[in-house]
Amino acid sequence: MHVKGLSCHGSAPERGDNAIYKISRIALEIEKLHERLHTDDFLGKGSVCVTEVYFTGPSQCAVPDSARIHLDRRLTWGETLDSAVAEVKEACALAGQPDAEIEVLTYNEAAFTGLVYPTQKYYPTWVTAADSPWVKAAEEAYAKSLGRPAKVDKWTFSTNGVAIAGMHGIPCIGLGPGNEVYAHAPNEATPIEHLNEAAAFYAALIHQLQS
Q: pTM here?
């Protein structure tokens, strides 16, 4: 999100238009927006937070002439790109900055081959129904290979399933070693037993789907 200001000497800030003040008011409205986002019965509530802030200005002795913030927005079931952008626009208006520019970023980094495949950073939410044949097959494979019933639930974090299922509509499930509470944490670790059991499940699921 971008806002513009007007630079002037810091000794007379009233002569300018401080972009940091503008973006700060928007950031506080984003904090409030998080509390009123849509909640899905299964996936829970979406989230939004300010994760980065930037500004430009002639020097530390001058009023900044532009500022921007980066938002991390996680969508739950029932939310879309359009609905998320509309909510942010409303937050800007509530902050007294209806003219703020909202930009949905594009990922355009080059692969190791040099190929650049620009993709809008919109990751559609997906859910595979608990009664789908794919989930049922996974449950059966899990029970057969590990000797206990599977717990069918959801992860709090996102995965590449946003492309597989969210973008392309291919049924998707997730199972991996480790406990999600340690994901990206400084003490992240995975018991070796989890690695063995995950590998056994993967093999059993392939066999189950082929039978």
A: 0.85
